[in-house]
Design goal:
2 domains, alpha+beta, six-stranded antiparallel beta barrel, aminoacyl-tRNA ligase activity, 3 helices, Transl_B-barrel_sf, Alanyl-tRNA_Editing_Enzymes, four-stranded antiparallel beta sheet, elongated, Elongation Factor Tu (Ef-tu), domain 3, Alanyl-tRNA editing protein, binds zinc ion, metal ion binding, Threonyl-tRNA Synthetase, Chain A, domain 2, single chain
């Protein structure tokens, strides 16, 4: 399996690892290493891109995903690569893309926290953090007549991004603690003993395996653009300027 380096440090852009497995797929090759700095696509967040440097040659990574064997770095197949099992490789990610994705993802958490504080009947249910098409969905536990307005949410966003930014940490909690903090979400997460959570200072942590920035001050330009109701769900779209 692959040790995921991106869980401990969003800002780490390089890593040296050992190649432990290679799988050929038509014109592509999936390379597995003992550790990876690449975020694999999933959890509503696009994968990292970048390159693997093997024997001094940089091979572009086209796609990264999780399989039962670990994190697969998918690249164009090349005859010289087929002899590389067991060798060292250097991994480099496109840091600009990583940060765009981490900001967009963290923004989704911040907005969902702001909304659940405004209306305690709403709990985070889903996030789709693709830049250009970012939204979150919240489940309404009890139908209320509360109308959420984008202006009201954006006022809070602005406060937490520019006036009084909050630090953001990754923490690990026992499953029992997660069940008591987040009863609705705890059914949908892997039932492992320790659960990785994102904790924005002042808000209830949520389980998440994505990459997040270190402070809400990095979310400059964030704005909620649309709120739409779908049965018992509220869909909230947002955008964030790239920086
Ligand atoms: Zn997250």
């Amino acid at each position: 399996m692959t040790t995921p380096m991106y869980l401990s440090d969003t800002y780490q852009k390089e890593n040296t690892a050992t190649i432990i497995k290679m799988v050929e797929m038509d014109d592509s090759l999936a390379i597995y290493c003992d550790s990876s700095v690449f975020y694999p696509q999933g959890g509503g967040q696009p994968c990292d891109l970048g390159s693997l440097i093997i024997n001094g040659i940089a091979y572009p990574v086209h796609h990264v995903e999780t399989t039962e064997d670990g994190i697969a770095h998918v690249l164009e197949s090349h005859p010289s690569l087929l002899e590389c099992n067991g060798m060292q490789c250097k991994q480099k990610i496109d840091m600009q893309r990583r940060l765009v994705n981490a900001k967009s993802h963290t923004a989704g958490h911040l907005i969902s926290h702001i909304i659940e504080k405004m209306n305690s009947n709403l709990s985070p249910a889903k996030g789709h953090h693709y830049p250009g098409d970012s939204y979150i969905e919240l489940i309404e536990s009890e139908r209320t007549n509360d109308l959420l307005s984008t202006a009201q949410i954006n006022e809070q966003v602005n406060k937490l991004v520019t006036q009084a930014p909050r630090p953001i940490q990754s923490i690990e909690l026992d499953l029992a603690e997660v069940q008591s903090l987040r009863p609705l979400l705890s059914h949908f997460i892997p039932q492992s003993t320790r659960v990785r959570m994102i904790a924005i200072d002042g808000f209830t942590p949520v389980p998440c395996g994505g990459t997040h920035v270190a402070s809400t001050s990095e979310l400059e330009g964030l704005q909620v653009t649309r709120i739409k109701r779908k049965k018992d769900r509220i869909k909230v779209s947002y955008s964030i300027h790239r920086g």
